[in-house]
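Recap quiz, item 2
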Amino acid sequence: SQTIHQWPATLVQPVGSPLSLECTVEGTSNPNLYWYRQAAGRGLQLLFYSVGIGQISSEVPQNLSASRPQDRQFILSSKKLLLSDSGFYLCAWSSYSYNEQFFGPGTRLTVL
Amino acid sequence: GDSVTQMEGPVTLSEEAFLTINCTYTATGYPSLFWYVQYPGEGLQLLLKATKADDKGSNKGFEATYRKETTSFHLEKGSVQVSDSAVYFCALSDNRNSGGSNYKLTFGKGTLLTVNP
């Protein structure tokens, strides 16, 4: 069966510090991968998606970037965090053939 | 573009009450429809789905029917439990890229459900 991991689970960082969040998927190959942010309240904002290694599409201009160095690894980064980057970050995957997405457990980021 | 509108709540019910969370959508073509559930501090879990008109998705006592004529996908449960307390998201997937391309989901804003004992 397929599983998706995210780490760290919780992170507290000062403003201006770098960020690296990691997401990995097991049990499938060539997944589509997604990064979402869920700010205070409940709405989900799609940040990036990837259909293959090295292929990244950005949905919104922002202080963040994404990379996909391996087939089942998706990384969210920032060079200098802003207060507004605080939130709950969710990684998800979908298969080539089916359109539902499966979510990881999330990373709670607090920027102080 | 595609959009999903769901009642924002919050919805507060007593245990064993009947639940309805309304969801309507706007989309070009024939989208797939989903309900996701998010328990406190966790990621989203797929609750149920429907891929074509008149399909009924069901899981854990929850049901939703894909109504193309009213562009709706309302979530229902006959008797809620305290453990159903969570945020519920309605979502759609544009199936126009039917060649197996990237499937982006469009989410509603979520409905917070609280069930009291």
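Chain B touches chain A at residues 32, 34, 36, 38, 41-46, 49, 87, 89, 93, 95, 100-105, 107, 109-110, 112 (CB under 8 Å).
The CA atoms of residues 17 and 57 of chain B lie 21 Å apart.
End of item.
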